[in-house]
Design a protein that fits this description.
Layout: H1 20-27, E1 33-34, H2 46-56, H3 68-78, E2 82-86, H4 88-100, E3 106-111, H5 116-123, E4 127-132, H6 141-148, E5 153-157, H7 169-178, E6 182-186, E7 207-212, E8 225-229, H8 234-240, H9 248-259, H10 261-281, E9 293-297, H11 303-312, E10 315-316, E11 318-319, E12 330-334, H12 338-349
Parallel strand pairs: 1-10, 3-4, 3-5, 5-6, 6-7
Antiparallel strand pairs: 2-8, 7-8, 9-12, 11-12
Helix pairs in contact: 2-9, 3-9, 4-5, 4-8, 6-7
């Protein structure tokens, strides 16, 4: 019966990082440095845990289909923007493409980048066009516009995963001025940078900015994504979305997390401090980063070989071989707890 499976799912798929438990069992290591998935190492605040626990008592009921508690919290935090939500950033991406793209229509993606953009577009039957970044991983707006002027959706991640660099506001604006479709700007890591794209929302009706609670707010396990959208798009997105996507526990926890600015500030400070230390102390070239991870060039070794060697020493990092368009001599390293970061520096410098 396998012939029934669509061609776009016969091979490929998202590549996950190695699991800490598997590494620990394989190498008899009791404490693993988990630096592969760009997670916040600090647990959610006590207020978030309490609010989520209280919401769990009413989990026998369907959640609010409009997620009003979270939408209201977002408006209070950011201002009077139009918001939509999803199950993680992935859910926002998938619903946005479902809302806008018919089979055969073009989706343009700046690469190398997060692989799910292309997976979601292919699942919708879109024609996916990759536009390679410059050798320094910057974005050439003219190249993007030339490829995507007639595209239904263009996707740009900033700060970019896995390269870590942010695209300047003026470059994003140059693209917005010249295209006819929607620009989806994935800002999952923007809190760790000094860049602010929100003023562009007041000027352009073809900009969608995606955000997540997985990183700075320590809620990766609850899968909560959201996006700033032009007001005209909001009702269509809601119509195309799967019913009851964001569950009631996640919605309450996320709304509470927005109020704890100190929690976010602590990790942002941690990230900024350790990015500098990685750049100054790791013996391999570390690419400049605006995110909560760094890209490390481990040539002449391959990314897979370095990942395997570090795993044997109790450090999990991400090989970048699965990122289309990126040479196989890079690893991606998240900013974790102090002891995790110290172990990474010590171990990679021994190889």
């Amino acid at each position: 019966m396998e012939h029934l499976v669509r061609n776009c799912f016969r091979t490929g798929g998202y590549v996950f990082a190695k699991k800490a438990d598997n590494i620990a069992r394989g190498h008899v290591i009791s404490r693993i440095a988990r630096l592969a998935s760009n997670e916040n190492p600090e647990p959610p605040s006590s207020a978030v845990i309490e609010s989520g626990s209280n919401a769990l008592r009413q989990a026998n009921r369907y959640p609010d289909e409009r997620v009003e508690i979270l939408i209201s919290a977002l408006k209070k935090h950011y201002g009077d923007y139009a918001f939509v939500t999803g199950v993680g950033m992935d859910g926002v991406i998938e619903t946005l493409i479902r809302t806008l793209v018919d089979p055969g229509e073009k989706v343009v993606i700046s690469t190398p980048t997060f692989s799910f953009y292309a997976l979601a577009a292919a699942a919708q039957g879109a024609t996916v066009v990759s536009v390679p970044r410059n050798t320094d991983f910057s974005v050439d707006p003219r190249t993007m516009v030339a490829a995507g002027r007639d595209a239904k959706v263009m996707v740009l991640c900033s700060p970019n995963n896995p390269t870590g660099n942010a695209t300047p506001v003026h470059v994003v604006e140059e693209i917005l001025k010249a295209i006819n479709g929607i620009l989806f700007l994935d800002c999952a890591y923007v809190e760790f940078s000094d860049i602010d794209y929100l003023p562009l929302l007041k000027k352009y009706k073809n900009l969608v900015i995606g955000r997540t609670f997985s990183k700075v707010h320590s809620l990766a396990g609850l899968r909560i994504g959201y996006a700033f959208v032009p007001a005209w798009l909001q009702p269509y997105y809601i119509r195309a979305g799967t019913p009851f996507t964001v569950n009631s526990v996640s919605a309450v926890a996320a709304a509470t997390a927005l109020e704890d600015r100190d929690h976010a500030a602590r990790y942002i400070a941690q990230v900024r401090r350790w990015r500098k230390r990685f750049a100054g102390e790791v013996k391999y070239p570390v690419m400049p980063s605006d995110a909560n991870f760094v890209l490390v060039d481990v040539s002449p070794r391959t990314g897979d070989a370095m990942v395997a060697d570090l795993a044997e020493r109790g450090v999990i990092v991400r090989s970048c071989r699965s990122f289309s368009g990126l040479d196989d001599h890079y690893i991606r390293v998240s900013i974790g707890e102090d002891w995790e970061n110290e172990r990474f520096i010590s171990m990679i410098n021994s190889l």
